[in-house]
């Protein structure tokens, strides 16, 4: 009986080991929106969000990671259909078969206006009558009251290329833009290489937005959360944030 039990346990251990090895050697496919630098930077497969995801997976011995760059809607359908394993900017409903991780990073969406306009903007309601140029699918990521008051705006448009938001603001073509603070500073730095900029004001009227990753396998999601917790505890997470903030925005966002 003991011999039989030994071989049963040995068989189970071998199977578990083989499964873990297979998981470690399998390619994990990640979908990311290429327009959200410095969180995702397609030309070098890097960016703050990408590097945190890679580090959390590597902590779990998952080293073969391939990033695919696509718009949010395509990312959503690819996750549900199973052609990718992780979506970083899922905008669909949390349906059966889609699993949300702990927050990978906090975004801080802000309103930016030109200082010469002398706007007072302390709430969504003070955007009334002003023209707004926002990022794609902004109402999905902003408080519900923003979406409920789009009708009161002087004009509202969304752009896929967030670099265009900087140009439109500085040219005076729109009253305000809504953009994440890090993304604003990243593209402002790029814009200043070839253009003169005007003084601006950042209005912080929105709460931080937690940005989890989304999975179609709950086991992988669980391992990712464990890896994420480990790199936060070890200090690797903070090191990634500080180094890449300095590299891409020339600012220190130590409160994140």
Structure description:
This protein folds into 2 domains: 135 residues, Periplasmic binding protein-like II (D-Maltodextrin-Binding Protein, domain 2, 3-Layer(aba) Sandwich); 95 residues, Periplasmic binding protein-like II (D-Maltodextrin-Binding Protein, domain 2, 3-Layer(aba) Sandwich). The protein contains 9 helices and 10 strands. The protein starts with a helix and ends in an 8-residue tail after the last helix.
Principal-axis shape: globular
CATH 2nd-level architecture of the largest domain: 3-Layer(aba) Sandwich
CATH class of the largest domain: Alpha Beta
The portion of residues forming beta strands comes to: 15-25%
Number of DSSP strand runs: 10
Order of helices and strands: HEHEHEEEEHHEHEHEEHH
Give the low-pLDDT segments: 1-25
Instruction: Give average pLDDT, whole number.
Output: 88
Main sheet specs? 5 strands, mixed
The CATH homology group name of the largest domain: Periplasmic binding protein-like II
**Radius of gyration of CA atoms, rounded to a whole number:** 22 Å
Helices and strands in order:
Elements: H1 2-25, E1 28-32, H2 48-59, E2 65-69, H3 72-81, E3 86-87, E4 99-107, E5 109-114, E6 131-135, H4 138-141, H5 144-148, E7 155-159, H6 163-170, E8 176-180, H7 181-191, E9 200-203, E10 209-215, H8 218-234, H9 236-248
Parallel strand pairs: 1-2, 1-3, 6-7, 6-8
Antiparallel strand pairs: 3-10, 4-10, 5-8, 5-9
Key terms:
10 strands, 9 helices, 256 residues, D-Maltodextrin-Binding Protein, domain 2, 21% strand
Summarize the structure.
The chain has helices at residues 2-25, 48-59, 72-81, 138-141, 144-148, 163-170, 181-191, 218-234, 236-248, and strands at 28-32, 65-69, 86-87, 99-107, 109-114, 131-135, 155-159, 176-180, 200-203, 209-215. The protein is α/β, with parallel strands linked by helices. Strand 1, helix 2 (48-59) and strand 2 form a beta-alpha-beta unit.
